[in-house]
Amino acid sequence: MVSRIHQVEQLKTNIPGIEARTLVSNHHFPRHSHDQFGIGVIAFGAQRSWSGVGPVQAGAGDVIMSNPGEIHDGVPLDGDVRGWRMLYFDPAVLVREVEEEIVGQVEIVHPVVHDPLLAGHFAQLFGCLTASRSDGLARDENLLRSLMYLLRQHGMARPSSSGPSPSVAKAIQRLESAPETSISLAELAALSGISRFQLLRGFARDIGITPHAYLVQRRVLLVRRFLADGQTPAQAAVRAGFADQSHMTRAFVRQFGITPGRYRAAVA
Hints:
Layout (H helix, E strand, L loop, with lengths): L5 E6 L6 E8 L3 E4 L4 E8 L1 E4 L6 E4 L3 E4 L5 E5 L5 E8 L1 H8 L7 E3 L3 E2 L2 H15 L5 H19 E3 L8 H12 L7 H8 L3 H11 L4 H18 L4 H8 L4 H12 L3 H8 L1
Antiparallel strand pairs: 1-2, 2-9, 3-8, 4-7, 4-9, 5-6, 5-8, 7-11, 10-12
Helix pairs in contact: 2-3, 4-5, 4-7, 7-8, 7-9, 7-10, 8-9
């Protein structure tokens, strides 16, 4: 039996709205999403992932990326350890940085690319953002250059018609508007105007996970926000609607790979 290896470090960055994380792990991340743009580079090892464009694989040197709300997972190949570094950008930060050059909403096209130039830009940017002392001008140049290259080479305008079906969209709107409050599948289906089974099937088709899994993820994102504001894990669990702190902690680790306490210590 392969022993579990999971080492994660949440790093402070010198720009609000950008998070940095390093991981060395053979952890299997279940299907989940983030409310941020994610970009990272595999340092060693390899993993396969489920994505909106189908299964993909990433190995050493490959750049891995995700859009806000995009469902994905991560499974180490053959159970071996892989290591990678990630930067997560709040959408408002990304828009602010590129709005002079790119108009409208954008999205990243490919979840995995082999692009040594982008990987090099990422390495420089990661170093600038996580340095205890950094030259502001060099950091700003690296940030803009990296984002512009990323979006011009691997991005596209977000189609206005993209998104789930109207019935699933209604359910999502309810889950996102009040994730801290409980709701039954029957109530959610009634709001959507379809049967419970149609809702389950529609969620699986359009989103890739169940309504309950989506709700848990929204609650985890609430917890992340509360922790960043300085609240304790116990306080965050209650406010986000979790039954107890242990339930919240398990969900948080599954999604982010780090405990709520360590995340709070790094970013609060």
